[in-house]
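Exam revision sheet. Question 4 asks you to relate a sequence to its structure. Input first:
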Amino acid sequence: MSEEMNKDVQENLETEETAQDTEEIKNDEAEPVEEAAEPIAGNEESKEDKKAAKKKLKADKKQDALKEKINELEDRVKRQMAEFDNFRKRTEKEKTAMFETGAKSVIEKILPVVDNFERGLATVPEEEKGSPFAEGMEMIYKQLISELEKMEVKPIPAIGEEFNPDFHNAVMQVESDEYESGVIAQELQKGYTYRDSVVRHSMVAVVS
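Answer key, structure tokens:
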């Protein structure tokens, strides 16, 4: 009877040892599982960081592209404004040039009338210079010259002046005791300027 009890006690002890060993094995196996879980969490964080970095890089590229587009548009606007300013200045210059050309054309047509007035007044005899007709012609001539002066039309100085090809047209040479060589002795046709540009050159005789 005692032997059977001893056998039962021994079996119980062995059962308990086996259970303890099994529990230790389970605990040992469970620990690596927890350790292995840490790298997985680390991988998830790394993926999120990479995703955030990619998102930031994409946003930066988009912002850079927008800045480049803005700079391009600003440059285009500046160029267009400069082109418009140049066009405006060129148009004003062309308009002024057209006006100058038109005014010169009108003045050129009026100058022969002035020449005829001067020739007509020069032929009036001395005894008739005080007549109403002569005085009326003189008044019309003076009015015409006054209006031309208001338009900045001026006669070119000639007699006694040194010959200048920019203003004078020499048609003959003459001898003179009064003037030196190269000086204008006679004016055959009066020349005029309009705003400092020559409308008609003076036809002159120059001392040889």
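Marking note for examiners. Residues 154-208 form a domain with the Nucleotide Exchange Factor Grpe; Chain A, domain 2 fold (CATH 2.30.22.10).
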